[in-house]
Amino acid sequence: ILLVHDVFPENLAAAKILKKDHFLFKILKSLFDRIYASADEVIVIGKDMKELVHQKTHQSNNITVVQNWIDSSDIGTEPKTNNRILQELNWLDSETTIFQFFGNIGRVQGVENILHAIQKMKYAHLAKFIFIGDGAYVARLKEQIQSLGSQNILYYGSLDQKEKTTGLNACDVALITLADGMLGLGVPSKSYFSMAADKPLLAIMDSESEVADMINTHHIGWVVPPNNEEALAKQLDEIVLAKHCYAFNSSREVLNEFYSEKVAMSKILNIIRKFT
């Protein structure tokens, strides 16, 4: 049984680490395709990933989707007015909407697209953006924020694991990204953490991605295509003008019902029983 969280070597190409026409990529692709095809059962974490693995193995009857899960009891919810970070920043103005990017700030997160979209917003003065986390793109992110010179865009830094609840609750809307070209290659687990904090999700990714499908199926947020600054700016403006009236389902309740450890373990046990 093979559990796939990232699809190699295609994810290396998407991250611009290795070009698809490079001889090493071709060698790795041949190797990993054989590994995936040799498994009796393949578990993937998204429907889009299942389609990609199917293309690599030319098999579909032994590929099962078991979405990621987290323990929601590890993350609490709290009112914005009680949030230490927002109090520290004096970001408690009820007229503004706070958007948050939380987690790994890497090459394939599409952070630059967010910054460009902010510049195209009509109502950017009614929005604030906070980036919390660490990663390969942080240095560049800090440079870009400084060049924009806006008091409404902030890189806060990274947080200790014990402060996850505080960090995840420091917003109104969680930004979840998957850069163009990443469809099927990975599922951003940060979406489940923001759901545990009961935040609506703004997914900036392909509409056929696992997270986008989850958002549309359970009505817990919005989906905007990647690398479309105008569409993202328009959606950000619409969210700001809604003034916190979103009428979505509780993302935390959706998480507990459909993406809990109990649900995932039941699926995995059913797979194991096939071989016992």
UniProtKB/TrEMBL annotation:
Glycosyl transferase family domain location: 93-241
InterPro entries with a match to the protein in the record: Glyco_trans_1
Any Pfam family matching the protein: Glycos_transf_1
BP term (GO), one: lipopolysaccharide biosynthetic process
Molecular functions per Gene Ontology: glycosyltransferase activity
The entry's keywords: Transferase
Organism: Acinetobacter baumannii
The protein's name: Glycosyl transferase family 1
Keyword Transferase: yes
UniProt keyword NADP present: no
